[in-house]
Design a protein that fits this description.
heterodimer; A: about 525 residues; alpha+beta; FAD/NAD(P)-binding domain; 2 domains; 8-stranded mixed β-sheet; 5-stranded antiparallel β-sheet; disordered N terminus; B: about 180 residues; mainly alpha; elongated
């Protein structure tokens, strides 16, 4: 390690008022292979790994954290989409399902997806916890049991309701439309402190208003002694007889993404995979840990659909907090159905152009209306039906992660219903017209347009679909035949391997997942600490 | 194209291949724009194909730059150089397929390469790929159109043409935060 002050250590010093005991080591600083021993090695510095690391360091444990992404600070965030997405997202912002039916927005940097998420926070809905207990045998995850954990992370991350008077015009369309239709609608809670209300949460907060992991729990952990290797991609877990003996990682050149040839090996009493849904299953699969064929299965995505709503007045959806209003009007469908919830999205040009998935005059004419576009999202709550399989993570022959997603007919029905709801909402809010994003778009101005919209096909590659919420793949449960980890996050069949991230969720949540992951990681600190002690 | 149609074309394709398909498959690209000498990943032909796609995907809005003026294909080449080689290979294969005259004949009934087609034909081809019954073409459209559209609209030179003032600057806020 060199003596150059690392960004994380500097933040930690500022946050704690005392010199940091640990540090962030960036890839360019690793000039020789490293061989380390510690109490706990964590792979991944996002919502799960960061909260866990801070808790373990606070208990006096020696912790090493490996993060494939780079260490960035607010000074790196110039709010230019063309720079931010390749820098801060998985696969340089191009991740998707194998057939590209779903575009995957997933963060990749120190702080993981919390560096680029839109700050919307919900506790895990009690009905989801009950579903996990009833259908997946998950013990001990009740609203009461989780309350102290949520309260703790809410204090640290300044999670609080965002005042409606600060909602931007884009979110106000959601508010006004829902109110006129008599739908459930509320303001969101956000993890911000000193938020500038810029609207650029998705490309890295320029003023550290977002209380992401790289400005909260990670500096806490570094101040307490955490050693965090950035630009360091875990390639495999070495194990024998149900014990992980080492984590092997390649040091990456941040500019090219290529391995530098230098490696890091960490031998820890306990290893924790916290790389997030998709990456954690892939790491286990690369390590030959298949969990009786369950690793990678039951990956749920909250598939997202949207339409382009055009208003006479300027909406300027590119400015202002991306998500300050939500509606759960359709979250709980009739038995056999799949629900969805409604939130807004920032309308910045690169993201909008990608979402439009069009070319030529259609794309040009849509983009020409940018300041007048409002974007409301329908997020499909997948994974709650007994016969839903959702997505599957496997490995390609060259080791790359492959994600496939099976659209259950009820999910397709929910996407159709979400289109209808979004179109109705915008018309109620005063939109002049609403355009679907089908190859041959439907223009909705009235009931006839809604009928035409209902007649369109729905499903993969029928219209654009996104995901910003990846869940499952190493699911938690009470039945060893149906789950990868138990209710204490321990991988079945292993003495010293845990998974603490969104991949343990047995279903999707029906709400944004970050706070659930924070809360579960906060709860998991005791289990991991006990195993390492 | 329906599966049955594809099978018919596939059967006839064998004859075509024998009669001159090899010649079609070897037909070179149309060099109607300069190729930068700084390419890191793409071949000249792949660059020309991608640039031709970008030109039809991202039409300039009022007063906006062309995709060539933005340098969409060159920027993407730089991006590809930082991606997993397997992902890049997939994209290269898509570009090769798109500009392959034999592939165009078998799948779309055209004998021209994509780069050798008129702009109207290129628009038709892109639309066909978008709604094709073949998943490789639908997927290909999503990849290529998405990359070109995103890269074009990420460039500040395009902002004014879509009424986007650009992101605000927080340099002064950061400076204030960092003042002891």
């Amino acid at each position: 390690m060199t003596a150059a002050p690392p960004p994380g250590a500097a933040s930690a010093t500022a946050a704690q008022g005392a010199p940091a005991k640990g540090r962030i080591v960036e890839g360019h600083e690793v000039n020789a292979n490293r061989d380390l021993t510690c109490d706990v090695c964590i792979v991944g510095s996002g919502a799960g790994g960061a909260v866990l690391a801070a808790g373990l360091v606070g208990r006096g444990l020696n912790v090493v954290l490996l993060e494939a992404g780079g260490a960035h600070t607010k000074a790196d965030f110039d709010l230019q989409e063309g720079r931010a997405y390749p820098m801060l997202y998985q696969d340089r912002g191009t991740r998707g399902t194998a057939d590209q039916s779903i575009s995957v927005l997933q963060g990749r940097s120190v702080g993981g997806s919390t560096t680029v998420n839109w700050t919307t926070c919900f506790r895990t809905p009690p009905r989801i916890l009950k579903h996990w207990a009833d259908h997946h045998g998950v013990d001990g995850l009740t609203a009461d049991a989780l309350r102290p954990h949520f309260e703790s992370v809410e204090r640290r991350l300044s999670i609080a309701p965002w005042p409606l008077e600060r909602a931007n015009p884009n979110n106000r369309k959601l508010l006004e439309g829902a109110k006129k239709l008599g739908w459930d609608v509320h303001n969101t809670r956000r993890n911000v402190k000193g938020c500038a209300n810029s609207g650029y949460c998705g490309v890295g907060c320029p003023v550290d208003g977002k209380q992401a992991m790289h400005v909260t729990y990670l500096p806490d952990a570094v101040a307490g002694g955490l050693t965090l290797f950035a630009d360091c991609r875990a390639t495999r877990l070495e194990h024998r007889g149900g014990r992980v003996s080492a984590v092997h990682a390649d040091v990456l050149d941040r500019a090219t993404g290529r391995a530098t040839g230098k490696t890091v090996r960490v031998r820890a009493k306990v290893t924790v995979a916290s790389g997030g849904a998709l990456n954690t299953p892939a790491l286990l699969l690369r390590s030959g840990i298949e969990g009786k064929g369950l690793v990678g299965k039951r990956t749920f995505l909250h598939p997202v659909v949207t339409l382009v709503a055009l208003y006479k007045e300027a909406v300027k959806g590119f400015y202002g907090a991306p998500q300050s209003v939500y509606s759960h009007q359709f979250a709980e469908p009739a038995p056999g159905g799949v629900g969805f919830f409604l939130e807004a999205a920032p309308v910045q040009p690169m993201l909008m152009a990608q979402a439009a998935a069009a070319h030529g005059t259609m794309l040009r004419d849509t983009m020409a209306q940018l300041p007048h576009i409002s974007a409301v999202l329908g997020l499909i709550i997948d994974g709650l039906l007994p016969d839903e399989t959702g997505g599957t993570v496997t490995l390609r022959s060259d080791g790359r992660l492959r994600l496939d997603y099976t659209f259950h007919p009820a999910v397709n029905d929910a996407m159709a219903a979400a289109h209808d709801a979004i179109a109705r909402l915008h018309l109620a809010a005063g939109a002049e017209r609403v355009l679907s994003l089908h190859a041959e778009p439907v223009e909705v101005r009235d009931e006839a347009g809604l009928r035409a919209l209902a007649a369109k096909p729905y499903g993969g590659l029928k219209h654009p679909i996104f995901t910003a919420h990846q869940m499952g793949g190493c699911v938690m449960g009470g039945d060893p035949a149906r789950s990868v980890v138990d209710a204490k996050h321990q991988v079945r069949g292993f003495d010293n391997l845990y998974v603490v991230d969104g991949s343990v969720l047995p279903t999707s949540l029906g709400v944004n997942p970050s706070e659930t992951i924070y809360g579960l990681a906060h709860r998991a600190r005791d289990f991991v600490a006990e195993a390492a002690s | 194209m329906k599966r049955r149609t594809l099978l018919k074309v596939g059967l006839g394709g064998g004859v075509l291949l024998a009669l001159g398909g090899v010649g079609l498959s070897l037909r070179g690209p149309t060099r109607n724009r300069p190729v930068p000498d700084t390419l890191r990943v793409l071949s000249d032909r792949q660059y020309l194909t991608l640039a031709a796609v970008a030109a039809r995907v991202a039409l300039p809005g009022e007063g906006g730059p062309t995709s060539d003026e933005v340098g969409v294909a060159a920027k993407l080449d730089q991006l590809f150089a930082t991606m997993h080689p397997g992902d890049v290979k997939d994209i290269q294969q898509l570009l090769d397929l798109l500009d392959n005259a034999l592939g165009g004949l078998l799948l779309g009934g055209r004998t021209q390469t994509f780069t050798g087609s008129t702009t109207a034909q290129q628009d038709e081809i892109l639309s066909e790929w978008r709604t094709s019954g073949l998943s490789v073409r639908r997927t290909g459209y999503k990849v290529l159109a998405g990359l070109c559209a995103a890269t074009y609209h990420a460039d500040p030179k395009t902002y004014a043409s879509v009424g986007y003032p650009g992101p605000p600057s927080y340099g002064n806020v950061r400076a204030a935060q960092e003042t002891p």
